[in-house]
Amino acid sequence: MDNQRLILFFALAAVVFLIYSAWMEDYGRPVQPQVAQERGLTVDAPPSTSAAQDVPQVATTLDAITPAMSAADTQAVPAEAPIRIETDVFHIEISPRGGTISAAWLLDYATVAERPDDPFQLLKPVPPNMFIAQSGLLGEDPALLPTHEAIFQSSQPLYRLGENETTLDVDLVWVNDAGIEVRKRYSFERGSYVIRASQSVTNATDAPLVARQYNQLQRTDLIDPNESRFVHTYTGAVYYSPEDKYKKVSFDDMRKGKLDRSVADGWIAMMQHYFLAAWIPPAGALETFYTNVLADSRYIIGKYSPAVSIPPGATHVFENEFFVGPKLQDKLASVAPGLELAVDYGWLTVIAQPIFWVLSKIYWVVGNWGWSIIFLTILIKLAFYKLSETSYKSMANMRQLAPRLQALKDRYGDDKQRLNQAMMEMYKTEKINPLGGCLPILIQIPVFISLYWVLLESVELRYAPFMLWLDNLSAPDPYFILPLIMGVSMFVQMKLNPPPPDPMQAKIMMALPFVFTVFFAFFPSGLVLYWTVNNLLSIAQQWHITRTIEKQAASAKHKR
Fold first, then answer.
1. For 105-115, how does the pLDDT look when each residue is reduced to its tens digit (9 = 90+)?
2. For the residues 497-508, what does the mean pLDDT come to?
3. 123, 270 contact by CB (below 8 A)
4. What is each CA distance from 492 to 149, 417, 526, 539, in whole angstroms?
């Protein structure tokens, strides 16, 4: 395989890889169910769902408490009037039933680019795209503690963070006839997507009370009418542990088996493109992570704490943090260890994270993501300048040999063995490595793929405008102008390459710009912008090197 064919093969392979990885997202290996381990506690049971409702029950093993849901159980959050919370970053609705966080609108993020004043709703209590955060308590007697089906009371229906306030507390209270009081408190902070959540249990009975808390996220499949048919991103559950790091548990995995994993210093989350919701236990807390599948394609990932014994007259507080918002890379790492991995660059994270860091620093200077991509492209081109120079010199030398290679082909005809021997002898005599241009291209492909994931995964670029008709770098060019420019630039670049000696190969190579144009017409315009600028810079560099070598060859010929 000659130099040009290898280069184009690697380039085409990169595009095919992007398309394949977009559609066949690696959701992780199926998680097999395990039996819960006894830890010497009075109550040692994970949450579960019964045939009537998805309320955790007390039992000794995970398998014993996770029966299938009935078809009649279709409503996740009943229709009690919600308690509304307004802060500077989102509007939240909390259902009195269980104190469930049933709705969340992110004020700084629009639903669609055309309606910037229409905030994006991440949490929603009903299908389609049902997505809620539930919590509750478990005990030896289900009637003594409130699950996420219990009705809580609030002192007011609306809470608003004042202009001069930095924090806002919302309390919901549940009291039973036995004298047990549970107070759920959600604490909001100005400018933060982290909600501090606590369940305070006061035991006013004359006997010890054994209790554990649980927190879970429940959602349905994502239905997004604005999602590109050619670009697919992960929607599903994940958990983090210091041992496994970032672990996906897809909806398919949940159907195959239930997760049952004890983890310290971890967290659980449900995520989708650009956004996530996560329950984060206190540092050092050992909790058990679990999953379940309910009727109507509803999926749960949750966690429960070890049981504690609360003496008569005492109060115990179960604490957590709940993150609901965008995958802002400069903030996630400070919320919890490993939470920054929610911005999923896959196996090229080690390359993609520095690329985004540089891109964000450029944006801090120029204030426009389109120009940031252009300047980043220039920097990447400069970093690989010498490698590209080696590649283009090899191409230029091969171009000089093209007439002689054609003459060899005419001489030996179909005798492939003698033709290859003659070609190798010519390369040796002229001191040309026909593969010399391939390695530089191969080295640059991981950078291109990493940049693809940076542009695809970074919420900072969501709906980011550039200039003229390019008003959304995260979406395809609506008029296909940029992909056409990219196709033309690729055609010009191919004309600078040595022509393949085989006519059929030549026709295939000339068709590739058209094929790439079709592919890139459905890619985010930010990525097409990078490829186009890279092509234009490559054309300039290749033209200069080719012209220099042709002049040197003409001068040497004249001297002879």
1. 999 999 888 88
2. 64
3. no
4. 66, 33, 22, 8
